[in-house]
Amino acid sequence: MAITQELTTLSSVAALLVQTLRSLGHDPAPLLMKAGIEPQDVGNPTTRIPTVRMQALWRLALDETGDPALGLVAARHFQPAVLHGLGFACLASDTLHDVLDRLVRYSRMLNELPDFTLQETATTIELVVQLPELDPDFVHAAMDLGMAAFLRICQITEGTDILPVHTCLQRPTPVNTTAYENMFGPSIEFEADSNRLCFDKALVLAPLATAHPELARLNDQTVIDYL
Description:
Number of strands: 7
Shape: globular
Radius of gyration: 17 Å
Order of helices and strands: EHHHEHHHHHEEHEHEEHH
Number of helices: 12
Structural class: alpha+beta
């Protein structure tokens, strides 16, 4: 499947990548220009960037840094505000199940390319992010960031560095898997048929001490208005 100009990505994802490049000592300005992204659009929370241009930026960033795990490096800089109202709604959720449900419900805000679902087994609740069949030159670092950021929002909301019991990634197996195991835990599968974070069901359904239903509802409305 070719990525068309009609598919868009939240501009704050570009801002996060720009922040990461700067933290590594690289100037993002020429990369943005080559990718066809206006610098002022990166700092505008209401702007959306064509996914094809974000893919170009990722490609340039990987060439610039030489780090194939750059998406995971970017995820270390992730804060809930990157997701605007959705991030704050997640922080105020009743349970991690509510967090995952919000990511699925409002996935179109984040990126229009993947299909998000929640699946349940006897022992797990799983966030599934399914990419369509893509061109061979698709830059998987973008999905690395996405899956790691979804894990980070759960960790920040829970207040501990929880890990999935198992993680699946559609990306090709990296030469060095250490960064992926450090991020997602030792139980990780590459070249899978979907991207999947499998969480312990009891953990996901447990009430959160930080729950604030009214704040969650208000931020939900912010996301709905944005969409």
